[in-house]
Amino acid sequence: MECIRQGIGLSETQVPETFLVAEVGGQIVGRVSIRHHLNPALRLVGGHIGYSVRPRFRRNGYAGQILDLALTEARNLGIGEVLLTCDADNLASRRVIESHGGVPETRNSQDTKFKLRYRITT
Predict the structure, then answer these.
(1) What is each CA distance from 41 to 23, 24, 54, 112, in whole angstroms?
(2) What is the pLDDT of residue 44?
(3) Band of the pLDDT at 45, cuts 50, 70, 90?
(4) Angle at which helices 62-76 and 91-99 pack, to 10 degrees?
(5) Is the Cβ–Cβ distance between 20 and 34 less than 8 Å?
(6) What is the mean pLDDT of residues 93-111?
(7) What percent of the chain has pLDDT over 90?
């Protein structure tokens, strides 16, 4: 993982990223990837931050806590504004992003589902 964070040995489609795991009481509840910069594919779908909470731990506020920490880490990496994307039908993720100051952009129909794009200043 340290090589990926430092950008060592990455393919042309990869970018340096920091990968963190969220743990509570010795159990992994979720994870987050913070991409240090964006390539064309990540500018379209993916963005700077991708996070997930394991199904059995959802609806406990962990997504918001994970995003808080990811935004702090992004700021520490010198990323002043992050791009986040989510499926238009993912209401929980939309709420988390919007509650953290996510400003919506336009929809992207490149996938089979509409993706929503948000910007957050770190």
Answers:
(1) 30, 33, 25, 16
(2) 84
(3) confident
(4) 50
(5) yes
(6) 83
(7) 70
115-121/27-35 β-pairing: unpaired
Residue (of 44, 36, 39, 45) closest to 12 by Cα position: 39
In SS3 terms, the chain reads as: CHHHHHCCCCCCCCCCEEEEEEEECCEEEEEEEEECCCCHHHHHCCECEEEEECHHHCCCCHHHHHHHHHHHHHHHCCCCEEEEEEECCCHHHHHHHHHCCCEECCCECCCCCCEEEEEEEC
The closest alpha carbon to 42, from 110, 122, 104, belongs to 110
